[in-house]
Amino acid sequence: MTDIAFLPAKHLANLIRRRRIGSLELLDHYIARVEKYNPVLNAIIATDIPAARRRAKAADKDVASGEKLGPLHGVPMTVKESFDVKGLPTTWGVPERKDSIAVQDALSVQRLRDAGAIVFGKTNIPIWLADCQSFNANYGKTSNPWNLDRTPGGSSGGSAAALAAGLTGLEMGSDIAGSIRNPAAHCGLFGHKPTMGICSTLGHTLYENVAPIDMLVIGPLARSAADLAVGMSAIVGLDEIDSAGLQISLPPPQRRRLDEYRVSILVDDETIPLTRDIVSLQQELADFLKSSKVSVEVGARPDFDADKAHRLYDIMLRATTSARQTDAEFDANTAARDALSPRDDSKWARMLRGMTLSHRDWTALNESRHRIRWKWHEFFQDYDLMLTPATVMTAIPHTETLPYERTIQVDGTLRPFMNQIWLPGYSNFTYLPTTVAPIGFAGDGMPVGVQIIGPQYGDRTCIQFAGLLEKYYRRFEPPPGYV
Q: What is the 3-state secondary structure (H, E, C) of the chain?
């Protein structure tokens, strides 16, 4: 029998509402699992158990007294370390910030509490949230519950590992280059990167910054597509300033049945070569969709040059994260950029150009980006969704080599490790919603996911399609040894 810890959060909330289990009882069950499994996984790196127990007891009293209950009432959950949770550290893995304690909740954390969730801890990340694994000097490394020698992905790697191992009911992550989608795929989970701007990121920050970050979004990771919908319903909304005049009203899913959908699917990608295991599983998905009477077009893409868009994304991403440089680092990177050959278009060269980009040049790149947005808009007149592989390969072994110095073997050929961020970048830098769903296992036994890209504000369509795949194709499976 599957442990109750693996049930969807929506189901857990229903059990609490019907008094089949108490919030405190469920919290204590998760805490017992954390004590048993987390010492090896190192997924959950900070907790406030006394406060969580007080809130769980209050949640049980509300049920008993017939109070109006939120959609996540009484459900224990954790959030990524990068969110402010009052009384817990927010360090982003940066050693100089290891003693930084949040004095108030992030707006999204408060909204989760308002929905009834019992936030009891925080999960691990890489330094600066800037890697496809989860290791930092403050907390150490997080392992993948499917294989402890592998990373769970990143940067929401602790989120994914905790969920997959049944240590928490729901998770909240963030994404600027696949940081929700990469770990969701590597751990066999569902994850959703929302349309840019629909969920306030206030309190997901370091150094108490308040400005939104270009391309950065926050969103849920879960063991079911329905939980993504519940998590999104809790956090969608603008901050106090913007909500005075603007409200978010997402359209309903475009279709109801699987056979009503019109989808494009990329089985392979010429821009970024994929391992054959990934291609094979993507082809199996395409075959399933065709047999299910879905209107499927293999290889159809928006009408823009993917190689040029990849380059544009690389540079704009590094421009977005450039403010974290010290003056000395900026000067050194400027000198290194000036020494580059004009023909050098390596990942490192793109990184240097992005980190030292002038605002004049950024504005020109931004115009190119918005032209690509319109190409996506045209594409979605003919297709409801575009399906791509979520990752280039399965989760990599642990390494402390810096990301831009790292290479990976793709079917016998060495490739730059950071090439893989283009798959999530495909939709990320043009603000599009994207859901990841599990589609099977590679030959090494590790999970593989598909990326479901929708039109801007089509979040509910992406999640609903993931739910149809969950119902008719593949669903979350607990890793062996944790049930």
A: CCCHHHCCHHHHHHHHHCCCCCHHHHHHHHHHHHHHHHHHHCCEEEECHHHHHHHHHHHHHHHHCCCCCCCCCCCEEEEECCECCCCCECCCCCHHHCCCECCCCCHHHHHHHHCCCEEEEEECCCHHHCCCCCEECCCEECCECCECCECCCCCCHHHHHHHHCCCCCCEEEEECCCCCHHHHHHCCCEEEECCCCCECCCCECCCCCCCCCCCCEEEEEECCHHHHHHHHHHHCECCCCHHHCCCCCCCCCCCCCHHHCEEEECCCCCCCCCCHHHHHHHHHHHHHHHHCCCEEEECCCCCCCHHHHHHHHHHHHHHHCHHHCCHHHHHHHHHHHHCCCCCCCCHHHHHHHHHCCCHHHHHHHHHHHHHHHHHHHHHCCCCCEEEEECCCCCCCECCCCCHHHCEEEECCEEEEHHHHHHHHHHHHCCCCCEEEEEEEECCCCCEEEEEEECCCCCHHHHHHHHHHHHHHCCCCCCCCCCC
Residues 7, 33 contacting (CB under 8 angstroms): no
Dihedral pair phi/psi, residue 440, rounded to 5°: 140, -165
Q: Domains of the chain (ranges plus CATH)?
A: 4-257 (3.90.1300.10), 306-371 (no CATH)
Tens of pLDDT, residue by residue over 414-439, are 888 888 888 999 899 999 999 999 99
Contacts of 330 (CB under 8 A, 6+ apart): 322, 355, 356
Q: What is the pTM of this model?
A: 0.96
Q: What are the start-end ranges of the E strands in 260-371?
A: 262-265, 295-298
pLDDT at 283: 98
Give me the pLDDT at residue 2, please: 65
Q: What is the Cα–Cα distance from 342 to 243, expressed in whole angstroms? A: 46
Closest among 483, 478, 451, 481 to 465, alpha carbons compared: 451
CA 23 to CA 60: how far, in whole Å?
6
Give catalytic residue positions: 80, 155, 179
Q: Mind listing the pLDDT tens digit for each residue in 57-114?
A: 999 999 999 999 999 999 999 999 999 999 999 999 999 999 999 999 999 999 999 9
pLDDT in tens, 344-386: 998 899 999 999 999 999 999 999 999 999 999 999 999 999 9
Largest CA distance in the chain: 71
